[in-house]
Amino acid sequence: MSNEDLKLAAMFEPATDEAWRQLVDRALGGRDFDKVMTAETYDGIRLQGLYSQANADLSGRPQARDGMWGTIVPHWNPDVAATNAAILEDLGRGATGLALRLQAGRFPGIPAEKLSEALDGVYLNMASFTLVPGEEFSTAAQTMLSLLEASGHKASDFHGKLGVDPLGTLAQTGRLGTSLVGAMSQGSEIAGAVARVYPNVSTFMADSGPYHMAGATEAQELGIMMATGVAYLRAMVSGGMDVATAASQIAFSMAADADVSLTIAKFRAARLMWAAVLKECGLEDAPKMALSGVSSLRMMSVKDPWVNILRATAACFGAGIGGADDICILPHDSMVGMSSGFARRIARNVQIILQEESGLSRVQDPAAGSYAFETITSELAPKAWEYFQKIESVGGIEKALAARAIQEDLANAWAVRRQNLAKRKDAITGVSEFPDIDEKPITNTGPMPPEPTELAPAGVTIEPLAFHRLPEDFEKLRGFSDACLEKDGTRPLIYLANIGSPADYSARTTFAKNFFEAGGIKSVSGMGGTDVAAIVDEFKASGAKLAVLCSSDDQYGGLGQDVAACLKKAGAYVYLAGRPLNADDLKKAGVDEFIYMGCDLLEVLAQAHVTAGASA
């Protein structure tokens, strides 16, 4: 067979955007193309249904990661013996580095003075380290540097980050132990000492995580991270360090969440932006950006925490494809208590499987040449640069935080996101979608360590950033339901008044069950049928004070009014699943409220708890 015989593509007409659009329009059957096939991010970027050469933007091409990413495992247990045992286990089973949160301010963690005990038996010349020291960064850095010096290994053998981040600490906690000027000066002195001795250790950390948890969009997160990096660069240069050396003393960390496309674009855009910053500083051959990814706390749920494993896998995929140099995956039970060995193992193996079995790190830049990822990156970077310029225009991130400009911007961004969560435009699997109201909680975690009750006097204070999680409002309602169950032996109940045959009511019964159980109101499903008296008797026997009509629009047009009237007479607060054309007649008959896709789920659920009269 000749090569000519194998050119099968020549037998077909070339594919075009127009031909694809015609096929899609036919499949949509008159539905609006833009509503169905495109979406808009919180930064106003329009995500297309198809990216092709005709609509792609390939103008941005960031530096790529070299080789595999580092597999980082987090530790923050103040029980130093338990931490040491966990660290040795992680390193023996595939981890390549450690992230250590130290006791500082309101955040519990490993005491800095016991760092050597926590790292007993750890070969620091083989495992990288990242400190999260908070406002105790000076003590933590000196302790860590002393350990490195005492180890007897060559200075070039150590790879790590001291994590000095006074701006991020101030933003997150609202305080520092010294003035911000003093903290920046201390950090610069440490950076000078580190740069002279340890070529692979950095001092400052520009961490966007606190801002992400406060509600930042991708562009805001990137802009704030750039502004933080520039502030640290200025501090070191003002202290006498050259720009290239100062740049090498700054590492960056970003949150990675379950939105794979935006996570990939965000990490790629970060490298483009930092290269642009250093170019403006006169560095044509700039040091490569040290960029870490940490799985998002904002996306994690307390309810159905097993889904966090899937979210973390998506986040790890996004950060890995996006080019993170190392990735830290938080265990799925991180919001429940001190993580179990099983949860740490799963978090560790997520990375190992994606690298070793899926081979994600074998390609230097997997997203390069992708019309979608390249275009989203090219559209995100300018928006992030615009926000970076906004911060710089008010005098830098220090002044923007002091003036509450950043806090207000992030609060506004969260308000928009919260509204979409309430209307389930942004779905949370296991929480707002497919909740398991009778799930068994995880019980093999250790208790969360208590927050310190007394803090040393602060050198500077500001309004701290908020801390948000996507499921928080739903989980408050679920928590109220749990308290009712513990106190009264039952949860708030709603009776599902199924009208007609299963073909009539099944779809809306499923919708209503998920709707109310997302807020902790347990459903009691009726047998279905057309006997109004039997339906009312079932309601009375259920013990519920709430009822929801579930059926087809045809049934609502006939029997629905009789059922609504009789349930109302029996003392029920009556909902109806759907938005039928005869809504006015149904309201006159006794329907109090309609539930449907797009209504404010949180508002309905909160009022339902009040109407149900449950007490916690």
Q: How would a textbook summarize the main sheet?
A: 8 strands, parallel, barrel
Number of helices: 23
- Adjacency order of strands in the biggest sheet: 3-4-5-6-8-9-10-11
Rounded average pLDDT: 94
Which residue ranges are poorly predicted, with pLDDT under 50 across at least 5 consecutive positions? none
Radius of gyration: 28 Å
Q: How many E-type strands?
A: 17
- The secondary structure category is alpha/beta
Helix content: 40-55%
Please give a handful of descriptors for the protein shown.
single chain, 616 residues, alpha/beta, eight-stranded parallel β-barrel, five-stranded parallel β-sheet, 23 helices, 17 strands, globular
Walkthrough of the structure:
With 616 residues, the protein is an alpha/beta fold. The protein contains 23 helices and 17 strands. It has helices spanning 17-28, 33-37, 80-92, 115-118, 137-150, 166-173, 180-197, 209-213, 218-238, 243-248, 260-280, 307-322, 341-357, 371-393, 397-402, 405-422, 472-488, 502-517, 532-542, 553-557, 559-569, 583-589, 601-612; strands spanning 39-40, 46-47, 70-75, 97-101, 128-132, 160-164, 175-176, 201-207, 250-256, 290-295, 326-328, 460-461, 493-498, 522-525, 546-550, 573-577, 593-595. The chain has an 8-stranded parallel β-barrel with strand order 3-4-5-6-8-9-10-11, surrounded by 8 helices. The protein has a 5-stranded parallel β-sheet with strand order 14-13-15-16-17, sandwiched between helices. β16 (573-577), α22 and β17 (593-595) form a beta-alpha-beta unit. α5 packs parallel to α7 and α9 packs parallel to α11. It starts with 16 loop residues before the first helix and ends with a helix.
